[in-house]
Amino acid sequence: MNRNLLSINDLSREEIESVLGTAAKDFLELSKRDIKKVPTLRGRTIINLFYEKSTRTSTSFELAGKRLSADVVNVRAGSSAAGKGESLKDTTLTLNAYRPDIIVLRHPHVGAPAFVSRYTGAHVINAGDGKGEHPTQCLLDIFSLQREFGDLKGLKVAIVGDVLHSRVARSNISGFKKMGMKVILVAPPSLLPRGVESLGAKVAHSLDALAGMDVIYLLRMQRERHEGANYLPSMREYISNYCVGRRHVAKGQRVLHPGPINRGVEIESALADSEENMILQQVEAGLAVRMAVLYRIIVDNAVPLAAGEAEVRNIQAVG
Amino acid sequence: MNRNLLSINDLSREEIESVLGTAAKDFLELSKRDIKKVPTLRGRTIINLFYEKSTRTSTSFELAGKRLSADVVNVRAGSSAAGKGESLKDTTLTLNAYRPDIIVLRHPHVGAPAFVSRYTGAHVINAGDGKGEHPTQCLLDIFSLQREFGDLKGLKVAIVGDVLHSRVARSNISGFKKMGMKVILVAPPSLLPRGVESLGAKVAHSLDALAGMDVIYLLRMQRERHEGANYLPSMREYISNYCVGRRHVAKGQRVLHPGPINRGVEIESALADSEENMILQQVEAGLAVRMAVLYRIIVDNAVPLAAGEAEVRNIQAVG
Amino acid sequence: MNRNLLSINDLSREEIESVLGTAAKDFLELSKRDIKKVPTLRGRTIINLFYEKSTRTSTSFELAGKRLSADVVNVRAGSSAAGKGESLKDTTLTLNAYRPDIIVLRHPHVGAPAFVSRYTGAHVINAGDGKGEHPTQCLLDIFSLQREFGDLKGLKVAIVGDVLHSRVARSNISGFKKMGMKVILVAPPSLLPRGVESLGAKVAHSLDALAGMDVIYLLRMQRERHEGANYLPSMREYISNYCVGRRHVAKGQRVLHPGPINRGVEIESALADSEENMILQQVEAGLAVRMAVLYRIIVDNAVPLAAGEAEVRNIQAVG
């Protein structure tokens, strides 16, 4: 792995395979033991810096860090100096002065993790930046699919729903294509980004497109990011056209969703409860994959720097 | 102990004695040492899932878990995916995918812990469910009284105040009776539940009933659960009739309160500060008792399951 | 060190040197290692009780405690029983029943830490009380200056800005004088406390006074404590007269600020980003100094008490 994980494109296909191999070999079974803990990162400091509400991602990273024996400190923007008007730069420089090993960042603005990485010597992991990216979500989705399908090459996946506001869609289109999958986006035109063609995925505007897919990847309707704009003529119409239920899922197709789900909006409740979906396997995979990312981002970068390089980095980090 | 602790009625009298024996023998003195920690639950994961504000209960469980060397993760509903509209079922299934050993749940709705227990393989401990139950409070109260009085059989206890909205009252009426105590409820009719007779306790409407009691158990006035309804003609009248002061307490009587106290509402400030009350002994007992509950709920259930049983449980837990 | 650290005046000059010696010798380099952790306070309990928002101080104490291997529990007043109207006294007595070793308190009212110390057997560290004091900030500032200047005797420091609302100013005037420094306060009359002369510092009302200083100590404009009162005719006028930029700083002068900074209010952005300021050295020093304080407050007070003394203390602590 590189120094930071800001985008799924920071990883080549080979690196993805390698990190997921660590997750499978070293960490997936660990959660099933009584003693769910290894001493690997003892004495390391991980700061979870979250500027948005989150359960699954923050808890997943917190537990991943604790099960690696790291010291984990949660910083919530709402209760922080950020509430006193401190800039992201100054918050980063301050936290950096504690010399954390890793900063895990969730932020509402695209590019915040790259920005933060300029002001810290810590490894920065993007845990979701606005409509930008969510690379560990992409990794855990690839991991879940590999365990289900084996090699992903040639597999067909439909990504369905609010593509426009979805960082998961952005990371997963790239990540799925990198693994050799064929991606189609299924959404009303108003929930697709302009220039969607440049993402390298086909587009469809009806759930009819799900026929023949191997994987149906449902996106969360991000109403909290619609901010009063009317992306949809009516939610009722959206639901009648795009809410996926069991009748849309053929035998052998598997359904994924990054969570949290909106029952009755993008997924019918019966499908959410059925065995066709892999939602909970995704969550479980997430913990193992994040342990692997935390571990590998440190050990892969543990090569001593040349003296001059270290000095430069130190100066950049401090000032 | 059974798999879960949802109600004080999940424990027989013998089991109560056994768990409290563990608290007394293994954990009560631990808090007085410099090194207040044992490695018993190292590598275990405890999730404190709190949907209501709390200091004493959440801090008590957090410290109990940490002093047993478990990894403790606090999940507050306010800052969680629940805030994005996720159902309790989906939150439970998600957290369960991390394979926690124990979920400690505080929730405003009666029955939430039983509901949660259907969707997780973790042991569920009810840390207060609306007007329902609060079994660890009951256990720590019994523990505190045993240390003061020895055998509780035949002891007379008055439970005074807002019985209607009190989960503590519900657990303690059952628990005290199980230990052979005689229970009388002292409250205005409007703060008693309908069909109060079925609880197996006598009822009185005046503090005169405190005469001859061994124990006076004061309840917190749960104004936050009155929700605009007028359960009382006036708070001033309630206070003049039911606020307990030193003059109501005879020599040898002991006063308990689950906290946090409302000075000047259900308890006069002078009584709160006097040596007749056992409020702080209760808090201290709470930590030892919760350590015992966390420890025993794991070791008592550590018997390997038959293969088929494990599979069923796993399926239930995951889907 | 004494039993508590409520004010910088709880420490003599010799004690300050001794504690800062521990920080330099044992803890400053620790943060630069891979394993940033020592087992010194394993099994000890530290409660961070914060009634005000904070990132840097609370995170700094949390990390300091964790790197000393203590069990650290964060209690935020907003999500605590304090929200149910519990008094500070009762919250203290409750937390004390868990027998913590140290309570770190941030509170909006002057004197709250002294009040808390009356109701607990734990060591109390003042992490900021309203306009009162912030002794660990003062210690880390002295530490930072010593590393820069060596002996501080005779050094001239200007403390600039909102002295009226600043606990940092109060602690630092005392602390700097204790170390033999000469202190001048630079602020408009409306942002100086009445009777400022009694603080033993000179006063000036223009940035011209910065000439000839060795150290320029900028204070945060505490607008959140102005509470609607008009301490300033206009913020624009204040900024034009008192906002310090690079042009105000002569060669060899060093600039400090306790953070978080208001760029463009008390400090110009270019100065905040320049090498003349020591802001991040202060933050880094803070972690080492707080580790030293947590460690020394325990070991310096570890002498066994006489039996009677212990009993008295226990009674005071419990009731």
Please provide a written account of the structure.
3 copies of one chain form a homotrimer. Chain A is built from 10 helices and 9 strands. In chain A, strand 1 (45-50), helix 2 and strand 2 (71-76) form a beta-alpha-beta unit. The first copy, chain A, folds into 2 domains: 8-134 and 283-318, Aspartate/ornithine carbamoyltransferase (Rossmann fold, 3-Layer(aba) Sandwich), CATH 3.40.50.1370; 135-279, 3-Layer(aba) Sandwich (Rossmann fold), CATH 3.40.50.1370. Residues 310-319 of chain A have low confidence and may be disordered. With 319 residues, chain A is α/β, with parallel strands linked by helices. In chain A, 36% of the residues lie in helices and 14% in strands. The A-B interface holds A 31-37, 53-56, 59-60, 62-63, 66-67, 76, 78, 224, 259-263, 272-273, 275, 279-281, 283-284, 286-287 and B 42-45, 47, 71, 73, 75, 79-87, 90-91, 93-99, 101, 318-319.
Distance between the termini of chain A: 26 Å
Oligomeric nature of the chains:
homotrimer
Biggest interface pair, residues each?
A-B, 35 and 29 residues
Shape of chain A: globular
Radius of gyration of chain A: 20 Å
CATH homologous superfamily placement of the largest domain in chain A = Aspartate/ornithine carbamoyltransferase
CATH hierarchy: architecture of the largest domain in chain A: 3-Layer(aba) Sandwich
Largest sheet of chain A: 5 strands, parallel
Number of strands of chain A: 9
What is the CATH topology descriptor of the largest domain in chain A?
A: Rossmann fold
**What's the helix-strand series of chain A?**
HEHEHEHEHEHEEEHEHHH
Structural class based on helices, strands and sheet pairing of chain A: alpha/beta
- Beta-strand percentage range of chain A: 5-15%
Give the CATH level 1 class of the largest domain in chain A. Alpha Beta
Number of helical segments of chain A?
10
Helix content of chain A: 25-40%
Give unreliable regions of chain A as ranges: 310-319
Query: Main sheet of chain A: which strands, in order across?
Result: 7-6-5-8-9
Overall mean pLDDT of chain A:
91
